## 1
Amino acid sequence: MATKLPKKTVVFVGGGLTTGLAARQLTAKGIEVLVLERGGDHRGAPENRLPSQRDELRWGIHNKLVQDWAVETYSLRHSRKDPSLPVRRMEAFLPGQGMGGAADHWNGQTWRWSEYDPTLRTRLETRYGKKAIPADMPIQDWGVTYAETEPYHDLFEKLFGISGKAGNIKGVIQPGGNPFEAPRANEYPQPPLEMTEAGVIFAAAAEKLGYKPFPMAAGNSPNAYTNPDGMKLAPCQYCGHCERFICEANAKSSPQVLLYPMLLQRKGFELRLYSHVLGLNYDRKARRVTGVRYLDLQTAEEYEQPADVVVVAAFPMTSTRLLLQARIGEPYDPATGKGVVGKNFCYQVMSHTPAFYKDRWLNPFMASGSSQTVIDEFNGDNFDHKGLGFFGGGYIYANVTNGRPIASRLVPPGTPRWGTKWKQANADWYAHSFQYSVHGSNYPHRENYLDLDPTYRDAYGQPLLRMTYNFRDNDFKMSEYATKKAHEIALASGATLVSPPQPRRGDFDARQYQTTHVTGGTIMGADPKTSVVSPHLQHWDAQNLFVVGASAYPHNSGYNPTGPLSALALRLGDDLVSYTQRERKL
Amino acid sequence: MTMKQLPRRIFLKQIAASSGALAVAAPGIASAADATPAAPAQPGLVGYQSFGPDEAAFVETLVNIMCPADSLTPNGVDCGLATYMDRQLAGDFGRGDRLYRSGPWHRGKPQLGYQLPLTPEQFFKTGVAAAKAACTTKLGKGFDELSEAEANAFLTDVAGGKYDDPRVPLAEWFNELVYPLFTQACFADPLYGGNRGKAFWKLIGYPGLPAFHTKNIVEFRGKPFPGAADPKSIQDFS
């Protein structure tokens, strides 16, 4: 049986980005924090050292930093009518494990979402009428406004040394930035990264069409940087080993560089590595959690860890699974539309248009994960959707993050898949091509949701999380529209050859990576009937339980998810300081 | 000073020169000289760990069809492509590392991914046997007796599903297992036995390590990068 340990004040499930940020706020006020993390510490390991860091096969193809699918995977079906099967090797998205979580192996692309995103339902109803949103698209307001989170965005950007060019400072549009940006109090803490040649080409073509290109905001440091906590970033080497890799130069804004080394020095902070949380202990009558159960992977001992407050801060999939297993909150039922846990599961809708330039040297191997040039005209509700038959959109960008040669090669359409002509095409175009990509939104659909698989189990004997998920008409129409816009920019760029647009088509494919941006499952909102957690991320059915991360997003926008979830995590830290002093509904 | 030592010295010098990195990156950098990756594969790695003679003959023919000797590279065998596949199948990948292998087992839609209880190594071998049999049965001669044009047409048909039979999904075998192994064999670090002599990195102009491009991204933006002509691999720094 589990050994019961002494009680802790705040226990976090998962040692990733959101935990690091919330724990920063808590430990600054002397509040005791314990973090349970299933993985180890990457610092000094081969993934964090040269020359082994530069091993595309090991980290980029075999994904050795990602959740081990042999231990735990997810099952999938495209519709409720289909049987589910386990995805035996997931490629579609890449949860991390180890101190720092997925934010150690991210690219660094950092966005604040649009000012209207937290109030998206209100926005769309106001602009297009009460009946405009289809009944099967359960968009909802978050119960918090952008303005309330702005100071936390500002703090996050300073802590992570985010680089970029402001587009909107206190309502004044700034030349060179994103004119669609939500108003911000301050300029980015660091200037933009160097532009790639692809960015030069993209910017000229976009400007020709009347768009406003700007540098992607980046968690890849252009300069040596010291954050307000005294933690340091080194300058980016533009080595092209960001996503799926851990930056050995400490130039990528990561929890293992900026948060955990500091937290580990703080009194009252404890990180237990190789501690896999098995469940949440829930006192149904008291409507409280009493703690968590976990397995110490180093000893095979099971422990019960009592806590005053539990924060579930795992990858969205795990956070949702833990609530479903503990039966905290009503599971979502797509037949009735009732219930909340597992609801509004979303992903991303990516699409591309490859373009080829005989006389331009793109040198894709000189890039960072975010040294990209982008336009925002066709994202979210930045354009008029009247008569278009869909909602949402995406940013369009010169998509060069690396030139790693196994995965990052483009050849013109019609090229044979092997042989001399294939080799010649690789030789001709490797350094002379890039994709115009659309990072597209994925709005919720009534039939896309998460629950527990009835059949398949993980290595700990617990049910796999089941994804019932597919792309829907809204996604296909959005992708068709936005990819055509990307194609038009490519056509205006003076390319030797532009591939036909490749909008998203077909069923969701677990074999194909798009982004690691899965969202929803424990969504936030002002109404307990339609949300798992309150606008303060407090569980409606367990006052001392909080859930933070992208699982709280009621929809997935066309922006990368890191910005708002980081702001919400810092805000949660402050909320918990107050809550631990006086327990109550926040 | 041996040639092997030279690049490492340059490498460490470049690390030291990458300003700022030294100051804050102590764990990753200070002992880069001590980095000891898995025993480096020697150029010209000899022998097979997984393939028997018949399998080796098939795979050698296959990689020489998919990568014929031409003005661009040596043939597939001489590029180490068969060796790469053999080592991958004999190692972690072939044994099913990071692959969820609990039942019950059912076939599903392709988008749900690989669903066979076979390890990748076993699946590879059943595919080789089935492809050889299909070739003999349908074309009347062995795979290694086909002309180059016939062999290319045969592989195209395999990839297109023409030779799928109820027990061996040869299109899936080729497209989801053989083909990824082929491109990895060409473009992975030579550490793993393929891309011998960095033939494919030289072909496309991938400079490899150490990839310190802080200054290069400005200096060589829009221009050919001289380092692409002489790529460096993990072995050069080991």
Note: The first strand of chain A starts at residue 3 and ends at 4.
## 2
Amino acid sequence: MIKLSPSELQEIAGRVRRDVINMIYKAQTGHPGGSLSATEILVALYFGIMDKGDHFFLSNGHVCPALYSVLAESGHFPKSELSGYATLGSELQGHPERTRLKGIENTSGPLGLGLAQAAGYAVWKKDSFIYCMTSDAEHDEGNHWEAVNFAAKYKLSNLIQFVDRNRVQIEGTVEEIMPLGNLREKYLASDWNVLEIDGHDFSEIFRIVEEAKSLKTAPSVIIANTTFGKGVSFMENNPDWHAKAPNKEEYQKAMEELK
Amino acid sequence: MKSIRDGFGEALEELGKRNKDVVVLTADLADSTRVKGFADKFPDRFFQVGVAEQALVTVAAGMAEAGKIPFTTSYAVFSPGRTWEQIKVTASLNNVPVKIVGAHAGFGASMYGATHESLEDIALMRVIPNMVVVSPCDYEEARKATMAIAENGKPSYLRLARQESPIITKFGDKFEIGKANILHEGRNPQVAIIGTGPILAEALEAAKELKESEIEVVVINLHTIKPIDEQALIHYAKITGGVVTVEEHQINGGMGSAVAEVLARNFPVPIEFIGVHDSFGESALNPDELWKKFGLKKENIIEAVKKVILRKNS
């Protein structure tokens, strides 16, 4: 397992955020808001949390620019490939595909399907930890809650779910589009261990994962409170930036802020 | 150039004024499926269900039983993609007039890649009893198709492309569900090109070029895939003796398959199929890049027409 200092991790997160904006600007397509909110969790997973044999399932596949950058940073493929994102013939598709790109464990994009795949995998990999990232908005999907029940029934204590709780979805805030009620209580009532952190704080992420790993009787969900569009002032908490590419001026401003 | 989805959205607003039973439900995609205009004008008849496609169509089925005419919108990959069994049972087997509107169909979501490209929806919908399947070819036809399915009293699927595309039908052209339209008819045509959706613009370009090399064709707009216009298909198969089908969809089970089923039973002729041959799509800047890659362009249609002529004469 790689052990990096907090400042080293922050440097990686900074590079990932700049990669995200570069990729989306160049391709003129992609999802900046969620990619920027998920950054620290993805960096932590690939730079410290995951051991050999552990697996990561990304459910909210639209944040793949951040995952692609983290995979490149962690040596899965050359960083030069990031510039092909979402163009014809590239292995870095607009949404990630398992059969195209080394390091991608599950094809995703359509929401609500990742936790179930992670749970199915976790049943047969009890000697390792299976991580899954979901978005808060994909809790709208019925398929997700079917997997919540399954994981609890089979006591998949090796399954650890991060919910990127950025509170924004395509057409507005989660509260406006489809309120989720008390997510913590819903998971507790479904017999999950429930933990909650600031999803941008590396020390909290590492601490809470250690706690989740020690809980032996049920799957764990880590509700990671994050800021949609984190690091770019005009994107933060603004649903317009769910699936929008910056123009030249916006790009320059974003890169200036992410220096 | 105008987009098919805009034709749908504008017609829906018009319907909202005319018919108070028309209601609209969407799964977090009001803007890109072009129902925002309706939502703003008729907030009491608009329902945002969140990213919950299964609820989208099943809630709509309940509303239809209550006497409403619900239009449900999402991307075609999600609905009817994710919602197939719900549609089969709660819309079609119940036989209530739920309208399934599948946006960004074909390669419409080209930049998002295979997960978001819908190349299977015609097959999924045409196999269900009671279901009407309509695939308009341009903005004008989308307007008329939307009006028509609002009034047909049946579960219906409306397939919408995302991108702006040429306007190839006229405001005054007649549109009737189940009746194919002739877009171009050469003198003594040797081949019938039968297509659906905005890709018909490529078929018309092909017809123009073929004419220059003295090959005459007829171009048929099969906007309704179900119920299919058997009469027109058989008539033109008899006149031409050869068919090329053109669609932005899998060859397996799509519009071309529906045409072949009719002709195999009634008047078999050589057929060539333009469409996607059993492969997934991928990311690209725009649908045109993918039409090129998967062989859906004018050049491919011309080649297929020539092949059919050879097969007729062999």
Note: The two ends of chain A are 29 Å apart (CA to CA).
